[in-house]
Design goal:
This protein has helices spanning 19-22, 51-59, 90-96, 120-132, 158-169, 181-188, 192-210, and strands at 3-10, 27-32, 43-47, 64-72, 76-83, 100-106, 110-117, 138-144, 148-149, 152-153. The protein contains 7 helices and 10 strands. By secondary structure, it is of the alpha+beta class. The protein is 34% helix and 29% strand. α3 runs antiparallel to α4 (120-132) and α5 crosses α7. The protein is globular. It has 2 domains: 3-144, no CATH class; 148-210, Arc Repressor Mutant, subunit A (Orthogonal Bundle). It comes from Halorussus gelatinilyticus. Residues 156-208 form the HTH bat-type domain. InterPro entries: BAT_GAF/HTH-assoc, HTH_bacterioopsin, RNA_pol_sigma_r3/r4-like.
């Protein structure tokens, strides 16, 4: 059974971490990560900073073999980068463990990675690599992917899944919350009560589908 794991890593332990020294307010989001034998070729968004400023910082990054600006939207840009396989680090650990990167988001303080693995030995191999190379990782959560039902993964309907993910990605579960039910409902264009019901039922189904509540 496949496994989902999330780790946090100090910003400096990821190749793009140096950018936060110059631009502490930006957020970097990995758009797509494709593991291959000797490199990872990701697309990543850099948000909250004029693109030309970020390009100057990227040119000074030794871990990047090359990069291309794909979309320039002014205060955010989509880049495609080829990493230098000669520079060992967390990306090498991801390749060696044959992990699939579901998502990765970086801020001034840390990076958060969510991985999918075919079995837990891959997660253990990644942890061992990081320990051997003095990369400080913290395991946030680890769980097996549950069986699907007719409604979807963990019994969530598509609408419930959308509500739960939107709340999570917008910081509703942070302390203090970074958004509220009214703002989330407005983003989906539905009534506050409708969104609240979707989120409550989705959370209930998620708990029942992932935890032993018997």
């Amino acid at each position: 059974m496949s496994t989902i794991a999330a780790f946090t890593v100090p910003a400096d332990d990821f190749p793009l971490g140096h950018i936060f020294d110059s631009f502490p307010e930006i957020t970097i989001e990995i758009e797509q990560v494709v593991p291959v034998t000797d490199a990872i070729l990701p697309y990543f968004w850099v948000r909250e900073e004029p693109v030309e400023h970020v390009q100057t910082a990227l040119e000074a990054q030794g871990a990047l073999k090359s990069y291309t600006l794909v979309d320039d939207l002014g205060d955010q840009g989509l880049f495609r980068a080829e990493w230098d396989p000669a520079v060992e680090g967390i990306l090498t650990g991801i390749i060696d463990a044959d992990l699939t990167v579901i998502s990765a988001t970086g801020t001034e303080d840390k990076w958060k990675f969510e991985f999918r693995a075919e079995d837990t030995t891959q997660i253990a191999a990644f942890q061992e690599y990081c320990a051997d190379h003095d990369i400080a990782i913290t395991l946030e959560y680890l769980h097996s992917v549950g069986a699907r039902t007719d409604e979807g993964a963990y019994g969530l309907t598509p609408e419930q899944r959308e509500a739960v993910l939107l709340a999570y990605k917008n910081g509703y579960y942070e302390t203090p919350p970074e958004t509220n039910l009214a703002e989330l409902a407005e983003e989906l264009g539905i009534a506050n009560q409708s969104f609240s019901d979707r989120l409550r039922r989705g959370t209930r189904n998620l708990i029942e589908g992932t935890l032993d509540v018997t």
